[in-house]
Amino acid sequence: MRDEETALGERLHFPEQSFVVAGLLVEWTAEGVQTLVRPRLPQNAVAFKNGYGPVDLKEAVATYERNFRAYREANGMKLKSWTFEVVNGATSIDYMDGRENMTDMLKGRGFPLK
Asked: Annotated Gene Ontology MF terms (predicted)?
């Protein structure tokens, strides 16, 4: 969604000072088709209720790294570290994937940014 906010706002006739935050696709897998679900960080590391709770972030990331690697191996994907990609991925404009235009989009939607 992040590189299509302006077009979506126009197509859906959003009022000024509104924009798309996230998109959600829900679908059913065809019967008999087996799919692999990409792992995510453990829920206790990303979801909290009424404030941030105690979490062993180092252990959560270590668990995720193991699951991430196993998923990539099982799918014949290039092996890489999620942590490395997060830390080093934002080194080029290509990584931004449209986010570099967000300030202009928000100003165009009527938000009074400086």
From this structure: oxidoreductase activity
Spell out a b/e string for 16-40, using b for 16 or more CB atoms within 10 Å of the CB, else e: eeebbeeeeeeeeeeeeeeeeeebe
The per-residue pLDDT for range 18-28, each reduced to its tens digit, is 877 777 777 77
The span from the CA of 19 to the CA of 11, in Å, is 12
Phi and psi angles of residue 53, each rounded to the nearest 5 degrees, phi first:
-100, 170
In this structure, what DSSP letter does residue 49 have? S
Min mean pLDDT across 16-25, 33-42, 76-85 is at: 16-25
Say how far apart CA 21 and CA 81 lie, in whole Å: 28
DSSP 95: H
**Who's near 46: CB < 8 A, 6+ residues apart?**
40
In one letter, which amino acid is 56? D
